[in-house]
Amino acid sequence: MRDISIEFPGVKALSHVDFNMESGKIYALVGANGAGKSTLMKVLSGVNSHYTGQVFINGEEVEIRSPKAAKDLGIEIVYQEVDVALTPTLSVAENIMTNVLVNKMGKKQFVNWNSIRGSAREALARLGVDIDVRRPISDLSLAEKQMVLLASAARERCKFLVLDEPTAPLSNTETENLFKMVRFLAKEENVGIVFISHRLPELFEICEHITIMRDAQVVKDMDITPDLSVKQIVEYMLGRKFDEVYEKKNVPIGDVLLEIDNLTEAEERIKNISLRVRGGEIVGIAGLVGAGKTELCKTVFGAYRSSSGTVKLKGRNITPRSPSLAVKRRLALVPEERRKEGIIVLDPVYANITISALHKFLNIIRFVVKRRQLAVTGKVIKDLDIKTPSETQILANLSGGNQQKVVVGKWLVADADIYIFDEPTKGVDVGAKRDIFKLIEDLAAQGKGVIYASCEFSEIMAIADRAYVMFDGEIVKEVKVPQSSEKELLYYSTGGN
């Protein structure tokens, strides 16, 4: 890729970028949120078609102005936002075999469903994944959806494969399986692979070369060698010195705000959950992918129905039956799947920031006053350092990390008593992660209660005061974080007794 530039309304997303790759090698592509890495790969995959510059394959210039053109050239991409790339009402098999089905329809051929499902099973088996190919995508977990996308891309026998944050929703075991597959594709099938990730330590395990972007440009391009450190990569990404150790503030802990007793979700995805959250306290919910953390968060917030148990706030029973009731009762949820559940991507920033508290922006005749929305949004943008040209920018044009900050920012306007964060740092860079940690500590300092659910045990250790460990839908251990360790959290999260 030579001299690639691209602009969106009010945003210079790429500026004269060069990027090279060879078959059979695994490349890391990293940068802070908004640096341009996903945008660059969307140029390569034909999604961002209005680029300027040139693309060469085997020395010959090619035009990539559509996803079909990219596929025809053997380029496949697995997106960070899995729900954008999958059709939820179709089965696993239909999603994996979409290209085959489309070709058959175009030629008016009959579909051999046994063959389609068999090929889909074979594609999943190559990844070491066992998913019923008849299940609709809407029934799958986030990790399972990711595996379906990977199976679909690998099945196409591509020449170049782009993986955008592929490990974000995966457990340790699933990540190891993914790495095996990536190495197999690179070394045995000679596929060139681009690996985009904010989990920087894993890049040393899987990648051979690294390209670092900042402010829409490439700032460093080099081989990964033993003397290269994560800290050096971070400093190239941010353009400044960076202290890896996060110092947690000591905040006074108050009385019990939230009491959950024997809470069981209607489909028993979580069972007999009991926990307490005090004012000023950050309570971690630790567990591996599939442990039930998300299900717990959604049940407390009323998105999933509970069959038994109670949720009390300040001693009053407030067990929510819907998210709208939860908001009225001063609960806030930052969900794991931000694009699907946390924001409206085709609306402007100001509409998203103010959507959870519109009653604050009404005039005397109950109309929303845009001027007030813009003023409050401007303050949130400044406080959270959201990179956007204006309050009126369409949210879809912002990077994933800045979208995540908007998800958090809308609840600051709502002013809740209990804030529930479900994997809030997934897909954000180390700088943005610090901003989110600081925001959470500021909420605790105001006397708010915070639940922080994550499979990143290092984050639980850095930010939480106490933690509950989940395994198979139940709480199996409560620990005081200063007296615990990542090793202990991992022990109990894997079924240790």
Characterization of the model:
The protein contains 19 helices and 20 strands. The longest helix is centred in the middle third of the chain and has 17 residues, at 172-188. The protein is α/β, with parallel strands linked by helices and 497 residues long.
Short characterization:
It contains 19 helices and 20 strands.
Radius of gyration: 23 Å
Structurally, the number of domains stands at 2
- The helix count comes to 19
The total strand number stands at: 20
- Arithmetic mean pLDDT: 90
Q: Give me the side-by-side strand order of the main sheet.
A: 6-7-8-3-9-10
What is the CATH topology of the largest domain? Rossmann fold
User: What structural category characterises the helix and strand content?
Assistant: alpha/beta
Mind telling me the CATH superfamily name of the largest domain? Answer: P-loop containing nucleotide triphosphate hydrolases
Low-confidence stretches: none
Distance linking N and C termini: 53 Å
CATH hierarchy: architecture of the largest domain: 3-Layer(aba) Sandwich
**Which geometry do the CA atoms define?**
globular
List the topology elements.
Layout: E1 2-8, E2 11-17, E3 26-31, H1 37-44, E4 52-57, E5 60-62, H2 67-72, E6 75-78, H3 82-85, H4 92-96, H5 98-106, H6 113-126, H7 142-155, E7 160-164, H8 172-188, E8 192-196, H9 200-206, E9 209-214, E10 217-223, H10 230-238, E11 256-265, E12 273-278, E13 282-286, H11 293-300, E14 306-313, E15 316-317, H12 323-328, E16 331-334, H13 338-342, H14 349-354, H15 370-384, H16 400-414, E17 418-422, H17 430-445, E18 449-454, H18 457-463, E19 466-471, E20 474-480, H19 486-493
Parallel strand pairs: 3-8, 3-9, 6-7, 7-8, 13-18, 13-19, 16-17, 17-18
Antiparallel strand pairs: 1-2, 1-4, 4-5, 9-10, 11-12, 11-14, 14-15, 19-20
Helix pairs in contact: 6-7, 15-16
